[in-house]
Write a structure and sequence with these properties.
Length: 176
Amino acid sequence: MNRLTILFLLALAPTTTFAGGGSIGSGENDSTEINQDKATSYSIDELKRYPAPEKDKKRIAIHLSGKTPKEARNSRVEILVGKKMQVDCNLHIGGSQLQAVTSEVSFLPSIKASTKIQVASTAMACPTRELKEAFVEGDRLMVQYDSFTPIVIYADKDAVIKYRVWNVSDDFSETQ
């Protein structure tokens, strides 16, 4: 399934989203809601339809603020998954993957984030053997902006989920 198909499927159904900077989902029930103050009663009801996370996972729900239909049409949400690791002076990338999925039981769309993938790095000789904790960036996924339903992400417990909203203007440049 290509990314265009995934974006189309996510636009058709209630969408869920991950969020945040920093560790998310470390509560007792391993469910975290981001921007809950922006949630509508409808988006809260929609979230109830999503199953609890599996034993070794966490569920993250991102509520987005309301926009007019025109503003929402010109907006997208970029989701980034990664994890914090001890790294040396080399550049480290990968190690995590995002996948848009639809439940075969409830037909609800969600995003699956995995951090069980091998990390790649450059092979420079570091002047010291010193390690530091850093965020190792993984996969990114762009989804349609939807303020009516939360963006729900099921992630490994060590995953760090970040998001940002992209907005564009209505102006298009014409080619000659």
